[in-house]
Amino acid sequence: MSTYGIDLGTTYSCIARLDSNGNPEVIRNNEDNSNTLASVVFFENENNVIVGQVAKDNIETDGDRVVQFVKREIGKPDNRTYEFDGKVYTPVEISALILTRLKDIVESQGDTVDDVVITVPAYFGLEERSATKQAGELAGLNVLSLINEPTAAALSYCARQFQEDRTILVYDLGGGTFDVTIIKMSMTEDGGVQKITVLATGGDDTLGGKDWDDKLYDFILRACCDENGLLPEELDAETRQDIRSKVEEAKRKLSQKEKTKVRVDVNGARTEIIITRNDFERMTADLVGKTMNFVESTLQKVNAVDIDTVLLVGGSTYMPMIKNAVEEKFPGKVQQHDPDQAVAKGAAIYASMLGLSIDNVEGENNIASVDGEGEDKHAELAAKFTVEDQTPRSFGPGVVDTKGSKPKYIIENFIKIGEKMPAVATKTYYPIEDNQERVRLRAFENRSMDDSLIPCVNEEGEPQATDPAHMVKLLGELIVNLPPNTPKTTKIQVTFKVDASGVHVEAINTATNDKFETFLRTASDVDIEKSAVHQLRISSD
């Protein structure tokens, strides 16, 4: 069986494996003559769906039938959908088409894709992670696990040249997401296993290269209007699409040249817009500043620990303004290795690590379909590392606090942002009243470090106001049935377990040892009943 690592990106995706020498390699996309696949889908007609550069090339002429940047939509609460030829597609289904195309690229070269690890932004919450895993399963892949993109990049770097204890900051600016992660790499005392421990993470899963593209698009659009005496709303859709199609190439040229020229036809007249690198850097300075603010806040989480190396990861770090800003903060410490491929390569290593674990448990070869010597080298590489990642959110149940003059419905944060995964926590609660027939245990995630906070629904299930900064999400609920005559002093032991793939919630009636459990993947399919009955309370009094 073959294990692969997949970087499912906002603008470009990539698939990698370990070669016969145990080194990570990216599978080349021969059709597009590239090591990456454009994360773009073109619905030409009901019988032909195209993924990749050809789909991207149709943005100019058939933009209304092209879907891109879907990673920004996956797992989000607005449940956006796309309809083509009478069929409705969700972001999960669009992502599955991209993953299927990556699978096809491998199979066209004579191999099979069995087990995979898919990367996600470190700042993705449960719903985004679960939706990503669901997309992999929909594409016919066995998703062994997910791994945070900066952690995967660090793993790739570690495998290549790590020789001593080091603290590394990973600055990961992709097409649609930004992560900054501080990682400690350390050797065991015998110099054998290398340990990768995530110390802190921050970022924004709606900040990426696309935002630089949007600024450049607005600049060119306004310049075209000024040259032709038009208002922006007077430009037709075809001209707008023409501008949009030329933005990425202009951005790439400005990474190599001091200025570039963009030609646009406006009402039959050729308009030439000259853009300098200084223009581009001036118009996007606020975006660069935003990323550096995340760097500062993440450093503060670890008391400004000394950074030995800074890794630039993600295609957007090719822009000189990015390297200059990071270099100014960390002079002489910045390195840039395989920005487009490091994440996929690290995921391939992690997939091999998990494959080795399965091999040890099941006594089967689940590492890779190579010769025996290659298998040994894969196992040797995989056995060199251990990875300790962090929880991306805080998690806990909604319960009633009966202390004080008036009972209130709150979230108790069992597990907080930054805890080592898998993270497990247990606490005891009690029924609200005697003879309660069941308990409705709701699970939440949020970005707060507080011990408790207001959830996004009240005990009746009705929406209620919360602090927007906490980004509280209702993940789902677990129904716990209680036997007749259950007293309100009965202890209900509630356990949350969080790993890279989701949240496992368990409740045990300690009087009967009845166990109830659920694995929460995404709230989108959960029907939350609006009812005031059957909550849990904190105190036994």
Description:
This protein has 541 residues and is α+β, with helices and mostly antiparallel strands. The chain has twelve helices and 29 strands. α3 (91-107) packs across α4 (126-138) and α5 packs across α11 (342-362). It is globular, with a radius of gyration of 25 Å. The model is unreliable at 360-371 and 522-528 (pLDDT under 50).
Kindly provide the name of the CATH class of the largest domain.
Alpha Beta
Quote the distance from N terminus to C terminus.
57 Å
Q: How many extended strands?
A: 29
Which bin fits the share of residues in helices? 25-40%
Average pLDDT reading: 86
Could you say what the CATH topology of the largest domain is called?
Nucleotidyltransferase, domain 5
CATH architecture level-2 label of the largest domain: 2-Layer Sandwich
The low-confidence parts are: 360-371, 522-528
Tell me the structural class: alpha+beta
Strand content: 25-35%
Name the overall outline: globular
Radius of gyration: 25 Å
Question: How can the largest sheet be summarized?
Answer: 6 strands, mixed
What's the number of structural domains? Answer: 3
- Helix run count: 12
CATH-wise, what's the superfamily of the largest domain?
ATPase, nucleotide binding domain
